[in-house]
Amino acid sequence: MTETKYVTSGGLAFTEVRDMKKLGKYARKGWLLESFAPFGYRLRKGEPQDLIYSVDYQEAADADYVSLFEEAGWKKVCSTDTDGFHIFSAPPGTRPIYTDQASLMERYEREQKMTGKTALPLLIVTLVCLFLRSVSLNDWIPNILGQIGLIAGLVSLVLLIFPGLPYLSYSIRLNRYRSGKKHI
């Protein structure tokens, strides 16, 4: 029997609550979260535990940041290397990391800003490259530049999906909250 297991994620920007519940179910079966993995999580076989999981975003996570959560009963489980996501675990009944809508909204604003910093340059590159392609069709610039623009535009469009869709998801959540239509 293998000691590790990979489970997929729906993407923290889209299925955060569902993912955290899923990790809790696995923990009760003895599969404990070990780390983030590409498009999911890596679990390690251990003793079954009744745990709840929660995610937070903080780019500059220092020892004070982690100790703040530990004092509240949360244990840091893993973090991403590049984008500041951290998953914490705690026994059921532990006070949630975010207890009010205002602090949760601040978190989503931080995440929106972080994904926007990556999405905006990729969007600009995509639009410029596709503009080059359309201009080359009118023979205003050499066709080879249009071909290069098309290829580069398609590549940047594919890359844009990864920060662009989460950015849109956070924007929709924030707009719903601000309009009072839905709680986050």
Question: How would you describe what is shown here?
Answer:
- The structure is a single chain.
- The chain has 184 residues and is an alpha+beta fold.
- The protein has two domains: 4-90, no CATH class; 101-179, no CATH class.
- The protein contains four helices and six strands; from the N terminus they run βαβββαββαα.
- It has helices at residues 12-28, 63-71, 101-137, 143-179; strands at 4-8, 31-37, 40-45, 52-57, 75-79, 85-90.
- The strands form two sheets. It has a three-stranded antiparallel beta sheet with strand order 1-3-2, with helices on one face.
- Helix 3 (101-137) packs antiparallel against helix 4.
- It is elongated and about 65 Å long.
- The two termini are 40 Å apart.
Characterize this entry briefly.
The protein has a three-stranded antiparallel beta sheet, with helices on one face. The protein has helices at 12-28, 63-71, 101-137, 143-179, and strands at residues 4-8, 31-37, 40-45, 52-57, 75-79, 85-90. With 184 residues, it is of the alpha+beta class.
- In angstroms, what is the radius of gyration? 21 Å
First and last CA, distance: 40 Å
Order of helices and strands: EHEEEHEEHH
Amount of helix: 40-55%
- Structural class comes to alpha+beta
Record the SSE blueprint.
Elements: E1 4-8, H1 12-28, E2 31-37, E3 40-45, E4 52-57, H2 63-71, E5 75-79, E6 85-90, H3 101-137, H4 143-179
Antiparallel strand pairs: 1-3, 2-3, 4-6, 5-6
Helix pairs in contact: 3-4
Key descriptive features of the protein:
three-stranded antiparallel beta sheet; 184 residues; alpha+beta; 4 helices; 2 domains; elongated; single chain
